[in-house]
Amino acid sequence: MSENKSGFERAVEVMARLRAPDGCPWDKEQDHQSLKPYLVEEAYEVMEAIEAGDPAMLKEELGDLLLQVLFHCRLAEEKGLFDAEETARALAQKMVDRHPHVFEDTLAETSGEVLRNWEISKRKARAGEDNGAASILDGVPAAMPALQRAQRLQGKASRVGFDWPDATGAADKVEEEWAELKAAMRKGDREALEEEMGDFLFAAVNLSRKLGVNAEGAARACIARFTARFQYIEKALRARGLSPEDVSLEELDALWNEAKNTGGSGN
User: Fold this and answer.
1) What is the pLDDT of residues 110-156, one digit of tens each?
2) Which helix or strand (DSSP H or E) is residue 7 part of?
3) How far apart are CA 129 and CA 122, in angstroms?
4) Fewer CB near the last or first residue (10 Å), C or N of the chain?
5) Neighbour count for residue 195 (Cβ, 10 Å)
6) Which residues contact 152 (CB under 8 A, 6 or more apart)?
7) Quick one: CA torsion of 166, 167, 171, 173, rounded to 10 degrees?
8) Distance of alpha carbon 101 from alpha carbon 137, whole angstroms
9) Are 196 and 181 spatial neighbours (Cβ–Cβ below 8 Å)?
């Protein structure tokens, strides 16, 4: 293998070597289906590196994610479908096509105009492929986490004007859905409860979007705080030879408040 090639070219070459007849037994056994969990896992590890604010960690995790991309490209190349270079070239052309305000004469002075043009461009491309059946909401994977998917779908609709003018309308919608959820709770209708809870969560995500808050990220941060605080409770009780089930709710609540006041670490 040449040491003089670019980093990308060398990574492609290494991937091919791993898949060679005398390459790595594990790598040779993989296919697109078997690699799916690793692709998702590496994407989440990139997210954790971003949240940690650690550049070295981010570089490493981006490399691991790139490995998954190169792996899938290598599998396709072996079948004579496409390779990593073709994938990169197609991406470059797509970026040019989706940014006419940079590479052509189309005007877009704000990020909102850029996103609107992006959606129009994508829809036109899909319409050509689907005989005009494309939707503005196409392109958001169904497998996405629900909060993230809700915010992406709302954002897509917003780009063509289907949106509240400001956060006030979104906040009012949350109040409306909360009232409907409470009404379903009073009735005890299980089916209605599930539907109204969904509407309430969807409205909450919409408010989050209007406030400029990433709903998925906010939920992840909340989960991290909950975990740290509950583990603080467990640690405090272990020091006394106790477990959470050994004490009253009042004592658990007092320790919870203590954890909040100390940042959940006790320091």
Assistant:
1) 777 777 777 666 666 666 555 556 788 888 888 889 999 999 999 98
2) helix 7-19
3) 11
4) C
5) 14
6) 140, 144
7) 40
8) 23
9) yes
Positive or negative, the CA dihedral 193, 198, 199, 204 is: positive
Rounded (10°) angle between helices 146-158 and 190-210: 60
pLDDT digits (tens, 9 = 90+) for 170-222: 999 999 999 999 999 999 999 999 999 999 999 999 999 999 999 998 999 99
Is residue 130 within 8 Å of 171, Cβ to Cβ?
no
Q: Considering only CA atoms, give the Rg of the chain.
A: 25
Structure tokens at 64: 């691991």
Three-state helix/strand/coil letters over 101-164: HHHCCCCCCCHHHHHHHHHHHHHHHHHHHCCCCCCCCCCCCCCCCHHHHHHHHHHHHHCCCCCC
| Angstrom distance (rounded) from CA 50 to CA 59 | 10
Q: Which two tokens stand for residue 213?
A: 């808050």
